[in-house]
């Protein structure tokens, strides 16, 4: 079993990854994505949609939204969120390596470092090729991840934080495979009980991510240091790529 296939991970660490303030930030983030992509409506793919925090806001903004995720737990949270908000969204449970809907979407998003899960780089490139195929002509993909440059600048061997419910979260990352992947131990201490989970993902520099997108058929790729559209430089907080599918 791959780490992302383990439903216990998403359930146990849900409150850490998706606290209320992260949901509250989704409205402004969606507004910024729309501005970066220069796409204010149409059909939208939220790939690795998680609990639907962005998908719901896109739907509230008038997009026809399809949310794809392979986690039944997260998709159930997404359905609940959409129902509470009163929006209609198509939810699909599928591995992102397999989802393709040719020429169906004006805009696609892959957010919150949900790219680079797979050990084999060809699997990660397969995801990009699938998205390229699923976009309409002149369609746009927005990817938002933690950049390798930012990680190098702010690296800590151990990170601990206290959550709102009083539990303690400890993260212990390690670099592997010649600075190409990060392996992380997450330890959650709550009510006298400890849960431990390990996972890993590929990390990309700006140049590496741009080259991946260009190799998969995208004709134009711009990099930014955050969803607000700042330059990708030493002050960048995130690595955001805006890739456009050129018309044939």
What's the topology here?
Blueprint: H1 7-12, H2 14-17, H3 20-24, H4 26-37, E1 43-47, H5 53-60, E2 64-69, H6 72-85, E3 90-93, E4 105-110, H7 121-134, E5 135-145, H8 148-154, E6 159-162, E7 168-176, E8 181-190, E9 193-202, H9 206-215, E10 220-224, E11 239-244
Parallel strand pairs: 1-2, 1-4, 2-3, 4-5
Antiparallel strand pairs: 5-11, 6-7, 7-8, 8-9, 10-11
Report on the architecture of this protein.
By secondary structure, this protein is of the alpha/beta class. The chain folds into 2 domains: 3-146 and 203-244, Rossmann fold, CATH 3.40.50; 150-200. The chain has helices at residues 7-12, 14-17, 20-24, 26-37, 53-60, 72-85, 121-134, 148-154, 206-215; strands spanning 43-47, 64-69, 90-93, 105-110, 135-145, 159-162, 168-176, 181-190, 193-202, 220-224, 239-244. The protein has a 7-stranded mixed sheet, with helices on both faces. A 4-stranded antiparallel sheet has the order 6-7-8-9, with no helix packed on it. Strand 7 and strand 8 form a beta hairpin. Helix 4 (26-37) packs across helix 5 (53-60). The longest helix is centred in the N-terminal third of the chain and has 14 residues, at 72-85.
CATH architecture of the largest domain: 3-Layer(aba) Sandwich
- The CATH first-level class of the largest domain comes to Alpha Beta
Gap from first CA to last CA: 40 Å
Could you tell me the radius of gyration in angstroms? 18 Å
Short description:
By secondary structure, the chain is α/β, with parallel strands linked by helices. It contains 9 helices and 11 strands. 36% of the residues are buried.
């Amino acid at each position: 079993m791959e780490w992302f296939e383990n439903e216990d991970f998403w359930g146990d660490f849900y409150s850490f990854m998706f606290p209320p303030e992260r949901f509250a930030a989704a409205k402004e983030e969606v507004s910024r994505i729309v501005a970066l992509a220069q796409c204010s409506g149409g059909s939208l793919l939220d790939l690795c949609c998680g609990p639907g925090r962005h998908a719901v806001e896109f739907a509230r903004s008038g997009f026809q939204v399809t949310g794809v995720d392979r986690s039944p737990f997260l998709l159930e949270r997404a359905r609940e969120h959409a129902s509470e908000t009163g929006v209609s969204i198509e939810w699909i449970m599928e591995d992102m390596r397999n989802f393709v809907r040719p020429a169906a979407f004006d805009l696609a998003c892959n957010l919150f470092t949900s790219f680079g899960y797979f050990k084999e780089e060809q699997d990660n490139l397969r995801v990009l090729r699938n998205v390229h195929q699923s976009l309409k002509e002149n369609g746009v993909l927005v990817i938002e991840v933690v950049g390798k440059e930012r990680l190098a600048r702010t690296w800590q061997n151990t990170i601990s934080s206290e959550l709102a419910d009083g539990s303690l979260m400890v993260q212990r990352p390690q670099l592997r495979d010649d600075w190409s992947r990060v392996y992380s131990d997450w330890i959650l201490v709550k009510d006298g009980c400890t849960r431990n989970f390990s996972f890993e993902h590929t990390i990309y520099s700006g140049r590496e991510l741009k080259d991946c997108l260009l190799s998969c058929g995208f004709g134009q790729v711009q990099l930014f240091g955050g969803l607000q559209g700042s330059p990708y430089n030493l002050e960048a907080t995130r690595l955001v790529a805006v890739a456009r599918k050129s018309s044939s």
